[in-house]
From TrEMBL:
Transmembrane segments: 6-26
SUPFAM superfamilies: Rhodanese/Cell cycle control phosphatase (SSF52821)
Gene3D superfamilies xref list: Rhodanese-like domain (3.40.250.10)
Name this protein carries in UniProt: Rhodanese-related sulfurtransferase
Residues annotated as domain Rhodanese: 44-135
Amino acid sequence: MSFLQNNIMLIVAALASGGMLLWPLFRRSSGKEVDTLVAVQLINYKDAVVLDVREGSEYNAGHLPNSRHIPADKLEQRLQELEKFKDKPILLIHRSGVNTSGKAGALLRSHGFAHVYNLAGGIETWRQANLPIVKK
């Protein structure tokens, strides 16, 4: 017991560093983040389904060509629309990254979608890369 008392700071530091090493494993549970280059490869060579989970007004202001739009808060009710794509890669798009798309990715994986990816930086990264955007 005196070892614990004498070395409490060392023990706390060891636990904290262990937690920091494990954090990325838990954080990535919502899906793999990909950059625009990998996203384009998924779309062009793997026939990925682009799923935009932003609100309607954001989607109408500009979205990826041929993307499907299901707002994140409606995704669970509309999962049947995606059933036929379970074996294809799904590329999730949000305004600025994984906040909402991470939750959407977790939902999709929990329903058997195996290949779910989040566009790192969301639609803003896509725009900054000067990749095609269509407006409705």
